[in-house]
Amino acid sequence: MRFKQICRLVKLMHQCFGLLLMVILLLSCLTGLLLVFKDEVDYLINRDMMWLAEPESSKISRLSLEQIELQIKQRYPNSRVSWFDLKPAHQRAAIYWLSGQAHLETGQYIAPEHNQIFIDLSTGEILGGRRWGDWRSPLVNLMPLTYQLHYSLMLGVGGAKALGIACLFWLLQMLLGLYLTWPKGRSIGFVQQGYKWLGYWRFRKGRSEFQARYFRHRWLGLWLSPMMLVFVLSGLAFNLKPLYFAVTDLFLNRQTAHLTLASTPFMQHIPMSSDQALQHGRALMVELAAQRDFQIVAPVGLSYSPYSGHYLYRVHSELDVSGDYARTSIWFDALNGEMKAVYIPTGEFAVDSFTSWISALHMAKAGLWSKGFVILSALAVLLLLVSGVRVMVLKAKRHSLWFFVKSC
Q: What is the pTM of this model?
């Protein structure tokens, strides 16, 4: 009797969690499908400010970072560059990120008109800009708004945590579903139950309409479990980092030096110039590549944080999952150039390697094949949702609850 009660409770929880997660999964799948082509759609909508009139390769040379900074200061006087785009551009405009500055007299923070601008690095011309994710410019910010909806339901930090909690419920839902697929009964042993369970991975039609729908839902759930686990774990890594790393740190080590950089008083010292930082960052990265025995493919970006007093220099290396998800980075002191931290995405620490791969897969940035993986995964989850709803509807009909609901 107790065993049957447990099974009924698990079935009820599986159905309730499925209903609770249905809207979130539906929204995540639809926005995720669009985000697979985030860059392509963004460039298509904002072609006038994100594409160059002629390829950069046909031009003589790029301006220095200080020359570009001067151009930006003239257009946005109360701003500083927080991210320099160093990637090879071809016919794509460079993407620079801006931050505001504190007023010298009042100390009040002044935000720039735009926090993301697009620049022709050969001339320094600012082709356009936007306040990333501003709902007041919905067309220009279509993809940033879609990203915010996917990541945080457009509710900020609270929304991101809520989706992280939803990932926990999704994980529990998967475990409950796997439990329900395991053959029940005490007449056969564990080994025989295992053989019978493996048989459920084969597609079966069923003798009745209910059996057909139930078998299809069970078959989809089994085959999609490994794929869904990738999105569940990566969702936790994105939205519930403290919990995710608290669990992984129990078993394996990871790189944390870049997370514990000492902060300095805001803007207390004038750092080395951006051009000096670029040259120094290149030299340090070449030295690191020689020490760790890896190849540098291309530069990615340079960033300065006045809060920590450090420069970040990032490249695409052979240790990265892909060029679209380049994370090989170093941090060095903005005053004396001393290297403070290193981040190697794969190959050295199991937690970092695993997290890099599942994150790149989640974002469809592990190569062209990962776009297909995400598209098929989203469509498969939608199909799983539909099959689950059809099972519940038919079950309600069989128990005469459907007609009671209709009469209400």
A: 0.89
